[in-house]
Amino acid sequence: MTSSPARVRIVDSADVSTDAEIGDGSSIWHLAQVREGVRMGENCIVGRGAYIGTGVEMGDNCKVQNYALVYEPARLADGVFIGPAVVLTNDTYPRAINADGSLKSAHDWEPVGVTIGRGAAIGARSTCVAPVTIGAWATVAAGAVVVKDVPDYALMAGVPARRIGWVGESGVPLKAGDDDAVWVCPVTGDRFVESNGILTKEAA
Fold first, then answer.
1. Would you give the DSSP letter of residue 167?
2. Which of 164, 165, 159, 163 minimizes the C-alpha distance to 144?
3. Is residue 185 a contact partner of residue 193, using CB atoms and an 8 Å limit?
4. What is the pLDDT of residues 158-188, one digit of tens each?
5. Cβ-contact 114, 89 below 8 angstroms
6. 115-116 and 133-134: which strand pairing?
7. Vertex 170: Cα angle to 182 and 158 (nearest 5)
8. What is the distance between the alpha carbons of residues 164 and 124, in angstroms, rounded to a whole number?
9. Of 62, 107, 120, 153, which residue has the fewest beta carbons closer than 10 angstroms?
10. In this structure, are residues 179 and 171 in contact, taking their beta carbons and an 8 Å threshold?
């Protein structure tokens, strides 16, 4: 493991590869597994029983809650929240065996990953089916199944997940503004403009 041991908290029951890079201030809790080649930024938290797959990349200040499964080659930007028991898949057409009945090996399929933008949140027990990209500051509701790319600031829910609204950087749903295309964050007052299914934050 690459980092100063004094600056990283890893409990005795966690399984962390010596080949993983763990940023200063990060904590890895009971029964979590962090595989070889993982690159984790500073001040990250990996909860009890969580799994971080080979070569996964995580930015700074990410939280992976208890029993979440982050399969390679997932890419998480800074400040991503992964809720309890979330699954980020990596096999588009999963099978245990080949067509001839032989057991599949690592060479019989090509892993594909989930990419998650800055500040996005994936709610408890939701599943993101690779390959999908979750936009910055988007929120996926608990129990949703994401099968298509998600735009920035989108609020997604359902099976399959559909956009049911917009959220700001505070995570609170946006309110309609003084124009049909304008949305406002009730917490920060930030204003956003919607155009063709894309939300853009107005400059301050």
1. B
2. 159
3. no
4. 999 999 999 999 999 999 988 889 999 999 9
5. yes
6. parallel
7. 80
8. 18
9. 107
10. no
